[in-house]
Amino acid sequence: MRPTCHPLKSVLTLLCSSLFACAAQAELRPMADSELAEITGQALVTLDGLTYGGFEYTRVNLGAEIDLLTNIDELRLGNYSRNQPNTVSNQPADIRIDNFALGRVDNANSSSATVVPFQVRDPYLEFAFKVNGQGIREVAGIRLGFGRARGDLSGDIHSLTGNMQGLVTGSASTAREFYMQQNNLNAFTCTFNFNCLALSLAGNSEIFSDIQLVKNGTGETTINGQPINRATHIGVPKGASFHTDNALLEPLLPAIASNNGDCTASGLPACFPLLNYKSIFVGDRTQANLDIGGARGVFFSLQNQNVPWQDLASANNKFVATQAGAFANFAKSGEGANALYPFVVSLYEALNGAARVPTCVGGLAKGC
Q1: Could you tell me if 88 and 216 are in contact, meaning their C-beta atoms sit under 8 angstroms apart?
Q2: Which residue has better confidence, 19 or 290?
Q3: How much helix, strand and coil, in percent to the nearest 5, is found in the chain?
Q4: Which uninterrupted H or E stretch holds 122?
């Protein structure tokens, strides 16, 4: 495997630069023993060790909160030839995002331009080691992760491999309007179309569904028992359907709003090109507090074999299984009413796409 990891190094360099910049502003003075005796605390950098499944892990934890505004021309990880049956596109890399950016700039092309940073807390760098067949201990994988993350992630997403578990939610009337436009219907002709009539009966009820990386055309998330890689689409998985809190409507949705293997639900697209979403808000945009609104368990990893990484967002010491190559983890935590999603997409955005937020100060929205 020959993964391209320069963008990952760029992010690491940026994190380190931020930390060093903060440290450079402080004046170092010796402290008396009496002063030291009154102080307790935790070091900025700590190390954790773990063994699991034949792997040994060393994690370097940075006890810091960092605000980021960064632009990368091309983020390409896992750039090597794949011939596996679960590779669902002809993309050259496991993760390929052009014009990748974290953070945004409000009023970008004015004198009142304001940086709204991508916030991360407790970043860490972790190494996985394993003894190979010759008895030599070698690095099997590396990952960069965050305890909490919140803010705008932008880019032209050509391919993704990993866990991308989000929520799409919106009014059934939004779906009806889109369906009518796509099928040249009006209020009268809609009554003679089954899907349009069903959406009309749903009225303004909120409908929602989990979404994840899927194979275009079918909505499959696995092939021959293996998770798909190099996905170009995200959507409602095959066999899943939209749901609602409307007790009268909910029994009907599995019949009319399911993805039955053709990437449609109620005659509408249920699988959406990743390229449609130029900006995605990671975390809860309604909660400015990073403790409450920050997504947990986000990480990017590179591994030369299948490596299980500990899920630091789980209270049950679960592990995230990754295949050889590059992997992005944006997974939900919790279930049911307690589920916390790393991102939420409106139904309107799912159907029509999401525009990019400016990430540069000045006239350029990207590529600065």
Answers
A1: yes
A2: 290
A3: 20, 40, 40
A4: strand 118-131
